[in-house]
What we know:
The chain is of the alpha/beta class. 41% of the residues lie in helices and 18% in strands.
Amino acid sequence: MVHLADEDSSSCSEREYRLAIKFAARVDLHHLCEFIAIELKEGLKGAGDAGGAHSALLRRRGTHLEAHYSDILTAFDNPLDHLDRFPYYENYVNLSKLEHGFLARHAAAPGRVAFIGSGPLPFSSLFLATNHLRGTRFDNYDRCGASNDRARRLVAAAEEDVRARMAFHTADVADLTAEELGAYDVLFLAALVGMASEEKAEAIAHLGKRMADGAALVVRSAHGARAFLYPVVELDDIRRGGFEVLAVYYPTGDEVFNSFIVARKVEISGTK
Length: 272
Protein backbone atom coordinates (compact mmCIF):
# COMPACT_ATOMS: atom_id res chain seq x y z
CA MET A 1 0.00 0.00 0.00
CA VAL A 2 1.33 3.47 -0.90
CA HIS A 3 0.15 7.03 -0.30
CA LEU A 4 0.61 9.60 -3.07
CA ALA A 5 -0.10 13.33 -2.98
CA ASP A 6 -3.05 14.41 -5.10
CA GLU A 7 -1.37 17.35 -6.85
CA ASP A 8 -4.64 18.28 -8.61
CA SER A 9 -6.27 19.04 -5.28
CA SER A 10 -6.00 22.55 -3.90
CA SER A 11 -5.42 21.05 -0.47
CA CYS A 12 -2.76 18.63 -1.74
CA SER A 13 -4.42 15.75 0.03
CA GLU A 14 -3.11 12.19 -0.29
CA ARG A 15 -4.70 9.16 -1.92
CA GLU A 16 -4.22 5.60 -0.81
CA TYR A 17 -3.35 2.96 -3.42
CA ARG A 18 -3.19 -0.81 -3.06
CA LEU A 19 -0.61 -2.35 -5.39
CA ALA A 20 -0.37 -5.91 -6.65
CA ILE A 21 2.97 -6.92 -8.17
CA LYS A 22 2.86 -9.63 -10.82
CA PHE A 23 5.28 -11.13 -13.31
CA ALA A 24 5.23 -9.20 -16.56
CA ALA A 25 4.67 -12.39 -18.56
CA ARG A 26 1.42 -12.93 -16.69
CA VAL A 27 0.11 -9.38 -16.65
CA ASP A 28 -3.67 -9.12 -16.47
CA LEU A 29 -4.74 -6.86 -19.34
CA HIS A 30 -8.27 -6.69 -17.97
CA HIS A 31 -7.07 -5.07 -14.74
CA LEU A 32 -4.71 -2.81 -16.65
CA CYS A 33 -7.61 -1.52 -18.73
CA GLU A 34 -9.67 -1.04 -15.57
CA PHE A 35 -6.86 1.03 -14.05
CA ILE A 36 -6.57 3.26 -17.13
CA ALA A 37 -10.35 3.70 -17.24
CA ILE A 38 -10.41 4.79 -13.58
CA GLU A 39 -7.59 7.28 -14.12
CA LEU A 40 -9.31 8.75 -17.16
CA LYS A 41 -12.57 8.99 -15.23
CA GLU A 42 -10.81 10.91 -12.48
CA GLY A 43 -9.31 13.23 -15.06
CA LEU A 44 -12.66 13.81 -16.72
CA LYS A 45 -14.19 15.01 -13.45
CA GLY A 46 -12.16 18.18 -13.64
CA ALA A 47 -11.41 18.36 -17.34
CA GLY A 48 -14.69 17.66 -19.12
CA ASP A 49 -13.23 15.94 -22.18
CA ALA A 50 -10.81 13.20 -23.18
CA GLY A 51 -8.03 15.65 -24.04
CA GLY A 52 -8.27 17.25 -20.63
CA ALA A 53 -8.37 13.83 -18.98
CA HIS A 54 -5.19 12.86 -20.79
CA SER A 55 -3.56 16.09 -19.59
CA ALA A 56 -4.63 15.47 -16.00
CA LEU A 57 -3.31 11.92 -16.20
CA LEU A 58 0.08 13.15 -17.41
CA ARG A 59 0.23 15.78 -14.66
CA ARG A 60 -0.48 13.19 -11.96
CA ARG A 61 2.05 10.81 -13.47
CA GLY A 62 4.77 13.44 -13.49
CA THR A 63 4.17 14.86 -10.02
CA HIS A 64 3.75 11.44 -8.40
CA LEU A 65 7.00 10.19 -9.94
CA GLU A 66 8.90 13.24 -8.77
CA ALA A 67 7.39 13.11 -5.28
CA HIS A 68 8.33 9.43 -5.02
CA TYR A 69 11.95 10.06 -5.97
CA SER A 70 12.19 13.17 -3.84
CA ASP A 71 11.31 11.01 -0.82
CA ILE A 72 13.84 8.35 -1.88
CA LEU A 73 16.65 10.89 -2.29
CA THR A 74 16.06 12.72 0.98
CA ALA A 75 16.25 9.40 2.83
CA PHE A 76 19.99 9.29 2.09
CA ASP A 77 22.51 10.98 4.36
CA ASN A 78 23.85 12.90 1.34
CA PRO A 79 20.91 13.20 -1.09
CA LEU A 80 22.79 15.20 -3.72
CA ASP A 81 25.25 12.33 -4.19
CA HIS A 82 22.40 10.15 -5.46
CA LEU A 83 20.51 12.46 -7.82
CA ASP A 84 21.29 10.22 -10.78
CA ARG A 85 18.92 7.62 -9.37
CA PHE A 86 16.08 9.66 -10.84
CA PRO A 87 15.35 8.20 -14.30
CA TYR A 88 15.37 11.60 -16.05
CA TYR A 89 18.40 13.05 -14.26
CA GLU A 90 20.47 13.43 -17.45
CA ASN A 91 17.56 15.15 -19.18
CA TYR A 92 17.53 17.91 -16.55
CA VAL A 93 21.32 18.26 -16.56
CA ASN A 94 21.33 18.71 -20.34
CA LEU A 95 18.22 20.88 -20.42
CA SER A 96 19.55 23.36 -17.86
CA LYS A 97 22.82 23.60 -19.83
CA LEU A 98 20.98 24.25 -23.11
CA GLU A 99 18.60 26.80 -21.61
CA HIS A 100 21.45 28.69 -19.97
CA GLY A 101 23.34 28.75 -23.25
CA PHE A 102 20.39 30.19 -25.15
CA LEU A 103 19.67 32.73 -22.42
CA ALA A 104 23.28 33.91 -22.38
CA ARG A 105 23.02 34.82 -26.07
CA HIS A 106 20.08 37.15 -25.49
CA ALA A 107 20.29 38.46 -21.92
CA ALA A 108 22.79 39.49 -19.28
CA ALA A 109 23.34 37.24 -16.28
CA PRO A 110 20.16 37.62 -14.18
CA GLY A 111 20.12 38.76 -10.59
CA ARG A 112 16.75 37.12 -9.81
CA VAL A 113 15.03 34.19 -11.50
CA ALA A 114 11.56 32.78 -10.91
CA PHE A 115 10.72 29.18 -11.76
CA ILE A 116 6.98 28.54 -11.93
CA GLY A 117 5.94 24.93 -11.50
CA SER A 118 9.10 23.81 -9.70
CA GLY A 119 7.51 20.70 -8.17
CA PRO A 120 8.83 18.35 -5.48
CA LEU A 121 12.11 17.70 -7.34
CA PRO A 122 13.48 21.13 -8.36
CA PHE A 123 16.34 19.89 -10.52
CA SER A 124 16.16 22.76 -13.01
CA SER A 125 16.68 25.50 -10.43
CA LEU A 126 19.20 23.41 -8.51
CA PHE A 127 21.37 22.71 -11.56
CA LEU A 128 21.18 26.28 -12.82
CA ALA A 129 22.07 27.68 -9.39
CA THR A 130 24.91 25.19 -8.87
CA ASN A 131 26.47 25.00 -12.32
CA HIS A 132 25.54 28.03 -14.42
CA LEU A 133 24.14 30.99 -12.48
CA ARG A 134 26.21 31.02 -9.31
CA GLY A 135 25.33 34.56 -8.33
CA THR A 136 21.59 34.39 -9.02
CA ARG A 137 18.72 34.13 -6.55
CA PHE A 138 15.99 31.61 -7.43
CA ASP A 139 12.38 31.87 -6.30
CA ASN A 140 10.52 28.62 -6.97
CA TYR A 141 6.73 28.66 -7.18
CA ASP A 142 4.40 25.68 -6.97
CA ARG A 143 0.71 25.59 -6.12
CA CYS A 144 1.17 22.57 -3.87
CA GLY A 145 2.60 23.08 -0.41
CA ALA A 146 3.52 19.40 -0.09
CA SER A 147 5.67 19.66 -3.23
CA ASN A 148 7.46 22.68 -1.79
CA ASP A 149 8.07 20.87 1.49
CA ARG A 150 9.72 18.01 -0.39
CA ALA A 151 11.78 20.44 -2.46
CA ARG A 152 13.01 22.29 0.64
CA ARG A 153 14.14 19.03 2.24
CA LEU A 154 16.16 18.15 -0.85
CA VAL A 155 17.76 21.58 -1.26
CA ALA A 156 18.64 21.60 2.45
CA ALA A 157 21.42 19.16 1.55
CA ALA A 158 23.05 21.61 -0.88
CA GLU A 159 26.01 23.83 -0.09
CA GLU A 160 25.23 26.87 2.05
CA ASP A 161 25.69 29.30 -0.86
CA VAL A 162 23.12 27.42 -2.97
CA ARG A 163 20.65 27.05 -0.08
CA ALA A 164 20.81 30.76 0.61
CA ARG A 165 19.84 31.54 -3.00
CA MET A 166 16.90 29.13 -3.25
CA ALA A 167 13.44 29.98 -1.89
CA PHE A 168 10.10 28.18 -2.28
CA HIS A 169 6.64 29.76 -2.39
CA THR A 170 3.20 28.14 -2.53
CA ALA A 171 1.15 30.02 -5.13
CA ASP A 172 -0.71 29.54 -8.39
CA VAL A 173 0.63 31.44 -11.39
CA ALA A 174 -2.76 33.16 -11.81
CA ASP A 175 -2.40 34.70 -8.33
CA LEU A 176 1.05 36.23 -8.83
CA THR A 177 0.97 40.02 -8.93
CA ALA A 178 2.85 42.64 -10.97
CA GLU A 179 4.79 43.56 -7.84
CA GLU A 180 5.99 39.96 -7.48
CA LEU A 181 6.62 39.13 -11.14
CA GLY A 182 8.11 42.52 -11.94
CA ALA A 183 11.08 41.78 -9.68
CA TYR A 184 12.53 39.06 -11.94
CA ASP A 185 15.02 39.33 -14.77
CA VAL A 186 14.19 35.84 -16.06
CA LEU A 187 11.15 33.66 -15.56
CA PHE A 188 10.87 29.94 -16.39
CA LEU A 189 7.46 28.37 -17.07
CA ALA A 190 7.53 24.61 -16.52
CA ALA A 191 6.08 22.22 -19.09
CA LEU A 192 3.27 21.01 -16.84
CA VAL A 193 1.95 24.46 -15.90
CA GLY A 194 -1.23 24.77 -17.92
CA MET A 195 -1.73 21.36 -19.49
CA ALA A 196 -4.43 22.45 -21.96
CA SER A 197 -3.49 24.93 -24.70
CA GLU A 198 -6.02 27.46 -23.39
CA GLU A 199 -4.59 27.24 -19.86
CA LYS A 200 -1.07 27.70 -21.18
CA ALA A 201 -2.09 30.74 -23.23
CA GLU A 202 -3.85 32.26 -20.20
CA ALA A 203 -0.77 31.76 -18.04
CA ILE A 204 1.46 33.41 -20.64
CA ALA A 205 -0.95 36.34 -21.02
CA HIS A 206 -1.03 36.77 -17.23
CA LEU A 207 2.77 36.92 -17.14
CA GLY A 208 2.89 39.31 -20.08
CA LYS A 209 0.74 41.83 -18.25
CA ARG A 210 2.83 41.72 -15.07
CA MET A 211 6.48 41.00 -15.91
CA ALA A 212 8.95 43.86 -16.23
CA ASP A 213 9.62 45.18 -19.73
CA GLY A 214 12.78 43.61 -21.10
CA ALA A 215 12.64 40.59 -18.79
CA ALA A 216 13.18 37.16 -20.38
CA LEU A 217 10.70 34.30 -20.41
CA VAL A 218 11.71 30.67 -20.99
CA VAL A 219 8.73 28.46 -21.79
CA ARG A 220 9.08 24.71 -22.02
CA SER A 221 7.11 23.06 -24.78
CA ALA A 222 7.05 19.92 -26.92
CA HIS A 223 7.63 19.06 -30.54
CA GLY A 224 6.64 16.14 -32.74
CA ALA A 225 5.80 12.87 -30.98
CA ARG A 226 6.79 14.38 -27.63
CA ALA A 227 3.55 16.35 -27.75
CA PHE A 228 1.92 13.22 -26.35
CA LEU A 229 3.91 13.74 -23.15
CA TYR A 230 3.94 17.53 -22.82
CA PRO A 231 1.66 20.35 -24.00
CA VAL A 232 2.68 22.29 -27.11
CA VAL A 233 3.12 26.05 -26.75
CA GLU A 234 2.14 28.02 -29.83
CA LEU A 235 4.47 30.87 -30.84
CA ASP A 236 1.44 33.03 -31.59
CA ASP A 237 0.34 32.67 -27.95
CA ILE A 238 3.77 33.91 -26.87
CA ARG A 239 3.47 36.95 -29.14
CA ARG A 240 -0.14 37.67 -28.18
CA GLY A 241 0.93 37.50 -24.54
CA GLY A 242 3.20 40.52 -25.01
CA PHE A 243 6.54 38.88 -25.84
CA GLU A 244 9.04 38.95 -28.66
CA VAL A 245 10.24 35.45 -29.58
CA LEU A 246 14.04 35.41 -29.52
CA ALA A 247 14.85 31.72 -30.04
CA VAL A 248 13.23 28.30 -30.27
CA TYR A 249 14.96 25.02 -29.52
CA TYR A 250 13.73 21.67 -30.85
CA PRO A 251 15.55 18.51 -29.70
CA THR A 252 16.93 16.39 -32.52
CA GLY A 253 17.82 13.31 -30.49
CA ASP A 254 17.39 11.86 -27.03
CA GLU A 255 19.54 14.41 -25.22
CA VAL A 256 16.47 16.18 -23.80
CA PHE A 257 12.70 15.65 -23.97
CA ASN A 258 11.49 19.23 -24.03
CA SER A 259 11.70 21.92 -26.62
CA PHE A 260 11.74 25.46 -25.25
CA ILE A 261 11.13 29.04 -26.31
CA VAL A 262 13.13 32.07 -25.19
CA ALA A 263 11.22 35.36 -25.38
CA ARG A 264 11.51 38.95 -24.18
CA LYS A 265 8.75 41.01 -22.57
CA VAL A 266 7.88 44.04 -24.67
CA GLU A 267 6.08 47.12 -23.47
CA ILE A 268 2.29 47.04 -23.69
CA SER A 269 0.68 50.34 -22.78
CA GLY A 270 -1.98 50.25 -20.10
CA THR A 271 -1.22 46.78 -18.78
CA LYS A 272 0.56 47.63 -15.54
